[in-house]
Amino acid sequence: MHSTTVTSPKRDATARTLTAKISETLRRIPSKFYVDLGDWRRTVVLAGTGRSGTTWVGDLLNSHNTYRVMFEPFHARKIPLLRDWSYRQYLRPEDTDEIYLSAARSILSGNIRHSWIDQYNRRIVARRRLIKDIRAQLFLGWIKHHFPEIQIILLLRHPCAVANSKIKLNWATHLECFLSQPKLMADFLAPFRHIIESAVDPFERHIVMWCVENYVPLRQFRDGGLHVAFYEHLCVNPAAEAAELMRVIGESYSDQVHRTLERPSAVTRADSAIRSGSSLTDSWRREVSKDQLERAVSILHSFGLDSIYSEASLPHVEGHDAVRRFGASDGH
Asked: Distance (Å, rounded) from C-alpha 233 to C-alpha 198?
């Protein structure tokens, strides 16, 4: 007579929980125990406004686990090294103040360890690093001036989609950080002071913030040196756009890249379009009113950015043409 082993549901659940905990522990080892052997010349910077898809695109760029992933290392309120930086720091390209240079050199070279920065790293021995940051747009020109070999990618997403997502998460706006920086106002924002100061409604404030964060780098890189990518193009034509991004950083498109395209990022909301199956480019339209859209387009027009985004869900230009078109149409 043969005996049969019967496992109880409780025992099965315990085993699954234990397995999950072990897997999670192993997965997180590289976030604490890694070796960074590279220098700043082998660093890629992916910048973009918060809620524009930077974490997802960062996952895409690191599909082959080539990079040490550095998550938002220019967060001045979390990283002690940046205690003298503004929360939304602007830097003129020619600025040589060591307060900024020494900190940036440490970050861009990977000579910094911090639980915030390393929380998504999965590389144990790294010779290259990928910096994903949503607070670096106002000094991208400065980075390129002092660290010219660094590849910089700016990700854009429709400002209405960004504003709608930020409002859902109750994100604050930081317009006062712009107004309080005399050099930033003198170099770029003086013509828009009234627009910035008069924005009271949270939706409009987020639209203005989007404009500032993208207006500055697009103006600074009018002569090239910046690769612009669009979230919407990655959604509509994922394979071609992903292949182009991989080409920019010197890697090839693969099945792993394709799988990453279909996987939500670690910071994707439970009610997001990618999880619910709704349109990735149009879902914001259900929650943004006609009046809000019209006001957003008016603000974009004031900055000259309606040459890139307006009423339509998709951008009017291709990534390689965004800087040239914006510079050509901008009257300021």
From this structure: 33
Of 30-34, 50-54, 235-239, 271-275, least confident by mean pLDDT is 271-275
d(CA 99, CA 94): 14
Tell me the mean pLDDT in the region 6-14: 68
3-state secondary structure the chain: CCCCCCCCHHHHHHHHHHHHHHHHHHHHHHHCCCEECCCHHHEEEEEECCCCCHHHHHHHHCCCCCCEEEECCCCCCCCHHHCCCCCCCCCCCCCCCHHHHHHHHHHHCCCCCCCCCCCCCCCCEECCEEEEECCCHHHHHHHHHHCCCCEEEEEECCHHHHHHHHHHCCCCCCHHHHHCCHHHHHHHHHHHHHHHHHCCCHHHHHHHHHHHHHHHHHHHCCCCCCEEEEHHHHHHCHHHHHHHHHHHCCCCCCHHHHHHHCCCCCCCCCCCHHHHCCCCCCHHHHCCCHHHHHHHHHHHHHHCHHHCCCCCCCCCCCHHHHHHHHHHHCCC
CA distance 58 to 306: 27
Q: How far apart are CA 132 and CA 147, in angstroms?
A: 17
Q: In whole angstroms, what is the distance from residue 114 CA to residue 120 CA?
A: 11
pLDDT (mean) for 97-124? 97
pLDDT at 164 over 70: yes
Q: Taking the model in full, what pTM does it have?
A: 0.87
- Angle of helix 159-168 relative to helix 290-303, nearest 10 degrees, comes to 120
Q: Considering only the top CATH level, what class is 30-329?
A: alpha beta
214: pLDDT strictly greater than 60: yes
